[in-house]
Backbone:
């Protein structure tokens, strides 16, 4: 079945146009309605990137194919929430939630544009009086603060399965009429354009275009600006608390900035880097408590699966974590509204401005970024290989934690410099590094989670808020986490040996022009 085709038309007397089109094109008036239409997507456009459009009216959710406009699924709202909550897609009806869960993950669905639309449906029928295509006339207004904005009036030719040639013929006849012209952009794209946005305009992925001959001063500032923009675009989401992943992306931008400050030492004046390095360390510390508690709450569905029938006995634990999280989030909001934080982002933005930076080049500012990329990547890779090679079965957990930090630093450098490398070779090295990071993350995260659960259990026991079965359920979870940590520890040697093998060493040598 072919895709619906849109046309724009100009007319003040909208009912008259519907009547004239019915008469000229021998169409039958089939329906008329007024409805409010809200388009939904995640903050990072996961629905769009997956190739879908998700919209909600007063009574139904509709999923359509973004490329063809074909309807994929229509599900009654049936009293469900807006589909927007602080944690994923739990506000959707079950059937739609199951369909979308693999798309949105843990992100919240948010309203990206809201319209009020008046539509008239005209049917094209064949000689047997069977409907073979439809023409939808729509008059839409963008709902937003302040006066509503009128969008272009649209004529949409909707083909029916098995009758594509009738829809094509109707489109050709429309195109010949005066005052009607084809429209390339969708209704959603037009609405977003008025709002100053476009689908896919934010992603947590770091996209940079560096050139080897550029100075370290210029390249570092470009990277710093990109990371600062990621922080600022997520700032309101962190404060409004509509999506836990806004804080995650904010923290990643902070960590990447700290890593860049280490990698690009000397790009800016020493006193500027020293001050900013301390400020970002403070900011990272202030975001940690809320994110740690977010992780515990995100893991609660898996907690329930672990303990089975006594899952309800974990409610006091969840209540305790939620209470701690509310307090931590309030402290974080105070931080983001503080003079210290506002001064940091303002002064840092001025220092790294693209046109008129307040910071001059530092002692290493004139070094070509290609040279620095090669040397810093080799140094970081050597540190990972050196630290990992001395870890044995008797090594303390801290040694694996330190290695995980070294791996993160190498990963961030690979992200910064990806545009300087052969994509296939770069991707292969990153995949190998991610596999090692996954092992180290499993070891470290289970240890942190286990200790946190033990601490929560102690507080619940002291307050008398937990039942005996609830405490036993927490104990069961701790035991499972201990087992997962042991398995991760047992698998480390093989995983590190794979990463430290000759293939990856050759990859680093080719990427950086020097051996390890």
Residues:
């Amino acid at each position: 079945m072919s895709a619906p085709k849109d046309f724009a038309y100009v007319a003040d007397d909208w009912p008259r146009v519907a009547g004239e089109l019915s008469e000229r094109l021998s169409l039958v008036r089939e329906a008329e309605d007024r409805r409010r239409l809200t388009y939904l997507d995640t903050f990072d456009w996961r629905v769009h990137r997956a190739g879908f459009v998700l919209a909600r009216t007063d009574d139904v959710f509709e999923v359509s194919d973004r490329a063809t406009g074909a309807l994929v699924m229509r599900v009654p709202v049936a009293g469900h929430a807006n589909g927007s909550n602080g944690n994923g897609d739990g506000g959707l009806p079950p059937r739609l939630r199951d369909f979308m869960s693999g798309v949105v993950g843990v992100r919240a669905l948010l309203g990206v544009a809201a319209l009020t639309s008046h539509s008239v449906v005209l049917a094209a029928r064949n000689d047997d009086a069977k409907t073979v295509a439809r023409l939808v006339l729509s008059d839409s207004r963008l709902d937003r603060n302040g006066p509503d904005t009128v969008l272009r009036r649209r004529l949409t030719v909707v083909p029916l399965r098995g009758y594509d040639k009738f829809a094509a013929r109707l489109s050709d006849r429309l195109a010949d009429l005066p005052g009607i012209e084809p429209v390339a952009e969708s209704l959603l794209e037009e609405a977003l354009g008025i709002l100053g946005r476009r689908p896919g305009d934010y992603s947590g992925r770091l996209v940079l275009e560096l050139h080897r001959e550029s100075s370290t001063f210029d390249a570092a500032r470009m990277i710093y600006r990109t990371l600062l923009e990621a922080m600022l675009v997520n700032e309101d989401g962190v404060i409004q608390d509509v999506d836990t992943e806004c804080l995650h992306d904010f923290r990643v931008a902070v960590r990447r900035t700290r890593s860049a400050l280490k990698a690009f030492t000397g790009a800016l004046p020493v006193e500027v880097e020293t001050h900013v390095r301390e400020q970002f360390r403070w900011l990272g510390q202030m975001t940690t408590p809320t994110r740690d508690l977010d992780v515990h709450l995100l893991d609660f569905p898996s907690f329930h699966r672990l303990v089975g029938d006594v899952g309800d006995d974990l409610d006091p634990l969840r209540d305790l974590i939620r209470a701690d999280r509310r307090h931590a989030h309030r402290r974080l909001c105070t931080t983001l509204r503080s003079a210290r934080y506002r001064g940091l982002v303002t002064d840092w933005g001025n220092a790294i401005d693209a046109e008129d930076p307040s910071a001059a080049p530092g002692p290493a500012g004139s070094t070509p970024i290609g040279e620095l990329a090669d040397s810093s990547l080799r140094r970081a890779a050597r540190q990972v290989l050196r630290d990992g090679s001395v870890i044995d079965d008797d090594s303390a957990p801290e040694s694996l934690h330190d290695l995980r930090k070294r791996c993160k630093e190498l990963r961030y450098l690979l992200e910064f410099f990806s545009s300087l490398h052969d994509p296939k070779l770069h991707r292969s090295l990153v995949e190998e590094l991610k596999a090692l990071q996954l092992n180290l993350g499993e070891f470290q995260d289970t240890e942190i989670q286990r200790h946190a659960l033990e601490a929560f259990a102690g507080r619940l026991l002291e307050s008398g808020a937990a039942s005996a079965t609830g405490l036993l359920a927490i104990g069961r979870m701790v035991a499972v986490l201990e087992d997962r940590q042991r398995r991760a520890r047992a698998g480390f040697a093989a995983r590190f040996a794979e990463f430290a093998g000759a293939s990856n060493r050759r990859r680093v040598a080719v990427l950086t022009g020097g051996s390890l």
Summary: The chain has two domains: 5-194, 216-359+367-510. The CA atoms of residues 429 and 503 lie 9 Å apart.
